[in-house]
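FIELD: query
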Amino acid sequence: MYKHLLIATDGSELAEKGVAHGLELARALGAAVTFVNVTEPFPILAWGGAMAGYAAGDEFAAYAESARQYAKEMLGKCEASADAMGVHAKVLHVENRKPAEAILELSRTHGCDLIVMASHGRQGLGKLLLGSQTAEVLSYTEIPVLVVR
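FIELD: result
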């Protein structure tokens, strides 16, 4: 059925449930997995103040390095879990992208046939104010999405 799963994670407790569920499914199906973590662009609003031009460079560098380190550690745990279960996996960290856009693009370019991701299940005003990468992926994907809540 499914041969290549894209499992998106931000490292949160809820996302870890999605990772575990996706890995169990991959093992049962004999499917390969690609884990992805996406770092959003540096928040422009943080650049305020008179010295913004000078401070922003340092803040941007610290933000980027912190995100890289976090992704490396988190994706390393995902890869170790896959190895322990006998699931072939690779990891990707995408920088400076909106998560939904990167997930959709990677699912196409890597030939994935199922996207696995978690969702908090926000509705109404909470969804509108907080946004939902999962909802955006569901709206624009051309392949099935397994949403873990």
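FIELD: remark
The first strand starts at residue 4 and ends at 8.
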